[in-house]
Amino acid sequence: MRPISPTLVGLLLSLTPSLSTARTETPFLGFPSPWISPTPTPSDSDPEWQAAYDKAVEFVSNLTLTEKVNLTTGTGWEADRCIGKTGSVPRLGFEGFCLMDGPLGVRYVDKASAFPAGMNAAATFSRKLIKARGEAMGEEFRGKGVDVQLGPVAGALGRTPLGGRNWEGFSPDPYLTGAAIAETIKGIQSKGVIACAKHYILNEQEHYRGSVDVRVDDRTMHEVYLWPFADAVRAGVGAVMCSYNRVNGTYACENEWVQNYLLKGELGFRGFVLSDWGAQHSTLGSALGGLDMAMPGDIMGPGAQPAYGSHWGGALTQAVLKGEVPQWRLDDMVTRIMTAYYRVHTGEYTSRPLPNFSAWTQNTTGPLYKASNSTWTTINEHVDVQSDHAKLIREIGTKSTVLLKNNGILPLKSPKSIAVIGNDAQDPPGGPNACPERACITGTVAMGYGSGTADFPYLISPATALLLRSQKDNITFFNTTSNWDLSTAQSVAASVEIPIVFATATSGENFVSIDGNAGDRNNLTLWDNGDALISAVASVNPNTIVVLHTSGPVVIDYAHNNPNISAIVWAGFPGQESGNSLVDVLFGDVYPQGRTPFTWGKSIQDYGVELLTAAPDPRNPRQEFPEGVFIDYRWFLTPGKGDRNNVTYGFGHGLGYTTFEYSSLIISKHDNWGEYSPTTGTTPPAPVLGSIPNQDDAKSYSFPEGFERWRIPRYVYPWVNLTIFNSENGTAKAPSIGDFPSEARDGRAQELLPAGSKEGKEGGNEGLYEVLYTVTVDVKNIGEVEGVEVVQLYLSLGGPSNPSIVLRGFEDVSISPNESKTVTFTLTRRDLSNWNTETQNWEISKDEKVVFVGSSSVDLRVNGTLPSGETVD
Hints:
It is a single chain. The chain is globular, with a radius of gyration of 27 Å. Strands 1-2-3-4-6-9 form a six-stranded mixed sheet. The protein folds into three domains: 6-12 and 22-34 and 43-355 and 686-745, Glycoside hydrolase, family 3, N-terminal domain (TIM Barrel), CATH 3.20.20.300; 389-595, 3-Layer(aba) Sandwich (Rossmann fold), CATH 3.40.50.1700; 661-673 and 770-865, Sandwich (Immunoglobulin-like). It is of the alpha/beta class. It contains 21 helices and 29 strands. Residues 789-857 form the Fibronectin type III-like domain. Keywords: Carbohydrate metabolism, Glycoprotein, Glycosidase, Hydrolase, Polysaccharide degradation, Signal. InterPro entries: Cellulose_deg_GH3, Fn3-like, GH, Glyco_hydro_3_AS, Glyco_hydro_3_C, Glyco_hydro_3_C_sf, Glyco_hydro_3_N, Glyco_hydro_3_N_sf. It comes from Apiosordaria backusii.
């Protein structure tokens, strides 16, 4: 056992007023977060949540011990038709839960859509489109018989632009990500599917992701990384996935501070926490630390291959029988799961389609239980769930395309000839799904790689779309595919009016690697000789257009400063309609409203953060977040931190085909403020639902007599193993019950947290969401074409410890030539507040606060100061 460090003691003392019950040394993990409270019991809530909770309580009250355990534990990797599947309750005719990736579509199935990535959705800066994307995905997941969509993503948030999974999420700005994840959740769950916000929390890189100990201070946690999850909870998300990494010493999936104290206590989360695949590390630690569902159920060994056994299943049954896990905690797990289920199964979605596919093959027939090679049967019904979603995918792809640079060449005006240059424009030679997990760059890249992908039903490449448009408009068309044959590229480029050169840089998950990039990118250069290709083409033609499909920013300053490069277009990862979306923008068929959801710096060093790639102790990698709340534009634009001169394209930047003028900023204070008061009172005591008959007789909960002939190999069951039960060691791979304070198993009423939810209001203290100010600004189109302006509101919170500005509002507005529109924003108490580590609450400082409104973080047109002192409660 290792004693807790003095440094961490100081950190933990900033997390809570009293740590008299905190562990001072770790039984099994090292440098633990403290035990602050057991899992809190939800309070009464809004009518929809309360109705769902009441149904869940009634259902759970009728379950046996093993039936309850069955619903908390996955049946094992490859043990069922879904990526994750819990056990069922055959006695009541209740099928286990089917869980499937991912954040941009149903993974591993046919006849489903490949939507634009999360970062593209964010780049639209359109709440309407983001929600519509969620609705369409929800329809497809439900149509396939999926109960839980493993998305959307708020972690990785995007602390470093090298982060492998940033593209799955939305933006390194917590406000934008919070707004986007909330709208996505509302869309998904409106279609009868449980959304799962992930990866909770601080899962900011792929290197060492399974063991890295991330050290973060309490303020940074609240103001940056927890912020979008609060929005997810506020939106009513049904599930949250805990991440692989450790947080201040303890694995996230058994970290009582992040799961019980922050998520379920402070934010008032009503749903259930499920583990990432293999992120569970113990029986008791995870059960008492706030985990509610174990995925995939069996213990995942090196290389994600099953190392037989389970932390839960029969081990959890055993722990309950021995009193190591109290019955109320098991009841709470199942009640949370069923509450989320009933919450989305309302109205027209009370029925529940069952899975009609296999995640392990797209063949029509195969083994029902792949891991056991069971009797073959029909496992894929090939249900087409795409509907007309291609139209929405194309629209989002178009409206997320960002014009970074345009010297007037766009939109294209009847060019006589064009050339498409580069591998990234081409049809993948083996088809769009030839590379497993999309882990290659042979052809155009329209999504990253890893578990956040989906199979393309088809992929319209830029080369194909531009060829079709050229044929339609009688444009002479040339195409060259190689990134390395620079002489041919130059020859073709010199012979046409408009050369369009394509380049990429992708990223993904660490279980696959491309050219030495193990999930995280190694640098911010373009791949496959892309930078050299761009420079070579530009050297022979002053009308060069550059198109980028990248998972985030790249160093592109050389192209920005090159006068022969007339336009730079970032298309991100637009999904199956990639080429069509691009053509719509290049030819001006659709107005380009895309805005970059991250900052483009001149070098990786300019971002002020480091990726941990070579830990001094690889067995115990540790990562500090010394930059605190200063990431992305918050770093670049704050004097004494970054340098705004190192910004090539600022957060929120994006050009259009017209010009907008800003005027008449008005800040109106609301007169009916309520006093902001710390939450007081207690939670209800934890209910015990039903009873456990014959608790002293373990044999009553062992495998039924004669079951062996029906037993499926490698399938996780809820029954105890009597040999293990009767051994001195007890539950395998679990710490001793003596390693946990008695408070960890205490089901009595708990004091509510000062910033916490009360009376079932989710997302924290209800006073945080009270509107204090309304801000209006007039925006006029002074150009000659109708256009969409993304109007952005930034706030200076004042004080030396704050970023110079933070995003606090955005609206996309369509305005005709010579028309003026008034755009309205609201500012809540939360928007104006900082986290106080001493009071464990949000507070508005006395520092002067200034509102800025403009078209990007580096193009602020008008500003006004909030009346001095009036923002202090």
